[in-house]
Structure formats: structure tokens, C-alpha cells
Amino acid sequence: MSFMRPTYIKVEITSAYALKYSLYMYKEQTDSYHLGIPILFIPGNAGSYKQMRSLASEAFYQDSTFDFYGVDTNEELSAFHGRSLIDQADYLNDVIKNLEEFYSEKFIIIGHSMGGVVARMLFSLPSYKPGSVGLVLTLSTPHTHPRAPLEYESYLIYNIINGRKYHINDAAVISVANGMRDTMIDSESSIIGSEFGNTYFLSEIPFVWTSCGHQEIA
User: In this structure, how many other beta carbons lie within 10 angstroms of the beta carbon of residue 140?
Assistant: First the structure.
């Protein structure tokens, strides 16, 4: 049984979005400083970077070679504003550029809900460096269509990430669909096309027999 003693350390990032977003590194109070495998957590609509706490703490006690970073999006309403998804993807790209000189391992990205859309948008950016990311894990992410289709820009984003010309050739993508207890994102919308990645339902994971709420999956 793990006992969380979280510390969030702000990391200065050179970016045009530095006044809008921030980056924090997660550390347990008992953890010594080291460089391991970098994991970037992106929250969803109105989400917090501190949602990475459960994943990061458990990973620390299971295998302390992971370095967790959370993107602070200031609880932006990304489900209602397509421009926010693009800005967050640009900032995520800047984060990788700032951190990659310290790591020899490829980055792992975990995106909760709309954060998973941001993660996929990353690969469509002209300035993205191929080979920087090795794995994208999305948790209860609506991959098929916008959750709140209130503007045309949101549709454009989904046309990009699900378009025939869009492929993530240098990273594995895994989508975890939550199940019936998730009343915000239906599992069908979390199914990613086989040409883009693989989909698993939460109840298919070994030792997991049930779904959970939308926020609890992160």
C-alpha cells in the first residue's frame, strides 16, 4: 500500500505560451532527484495537472525510474474551444523540445479525456520532431467526434487526427475506454481506428473487473 506525499516542482519552459500554461514535475518527498523515463500528463476539459498524482505515486512505489510531469492548462475548457486544443498541443511540443536534451529515452504521453486529443494533435504539428514520443496512452478520450461540437474549429481538429493522411508512425497509441460508469464519455467514442492505434476497455485489463467515473480513471 502506497502513501502519497506529493511535491509539485514548477519547471520553467521556453514557450510562446509560457504565460498561459505551466509545467510541474511530480516528486514524492522521499524521492531523490534523478533522471528516468519521462512521462507527460495532459488533463482534460477543466482538468488539473494534479490529477497525475495517483498514477505518479503508484508508479513511484512500483518503479521509481519514471519522471512524471503535468501540464497545467489552468483548467481550460478545451472541450468547448478548439483553439485551446491547438494551443495546448503547441505548448506540449515546446515542453518536449525543452526537456529532450536531458533524456535519452523517448517520451510517454498520458492524456485524460480531451488531453488525449491534444496528444494526438501533437503529431500533426510541422515543428514536431519525429521520434520524440514512444507511447501515447489516452484515458476515456473521445476520439471519434467532438464531445461538445459548438464550433467549426473542433470539427477541423478531428478531421486532422482522423484523416487518411494522418498517421503516427513513430509512436504506439493505446486508447482505454472506460465503460458504463463513465457518464461523460461513452465507450464507443473512445474507440480509436485500428490504423491509428489500439483500443482496450477498462474491464479487459488484468485484475480490473469494472469501470469507474470519468475523473477517477486518471
Answer: 32
Question: How high is the pLDDT of residue 1?
Answer: 42
The model's pLDDT over 9-26, given as tens digits with 9 standing for 90+, comes to: 999 999 999 999 999 999
Query: By residue range, what is the domain housing residue 79?
Result: 6-204
Query: Measuring CA to CA, which residue among 138, 161, 158, 136 is closest to residue 147?
Result: 158
Domain count, the chain: 1
Q: Is the dihedral of CA 11, 30, 41, 122 positive or negative?
A: positive
Return the beta strands (E) in the chain as ranges: 6-11, 22-28, 37-42, 66-72, 107-112, 133-139, 172-177, 198-201
pTM: 0.91
Nearest-CA neighbor of 30 among 53, 5, 62?
5
The reply to whether 49 falls in a domain is yes
Domain assignment present for residue 109? The answer is yes
Cell 481550460 sits on residue: 76
Q: Which of the residues 57, 113, 187, 211 is marked catalytic?
A: 113
Q: Any catalytic annotation for residue 15?
A: no
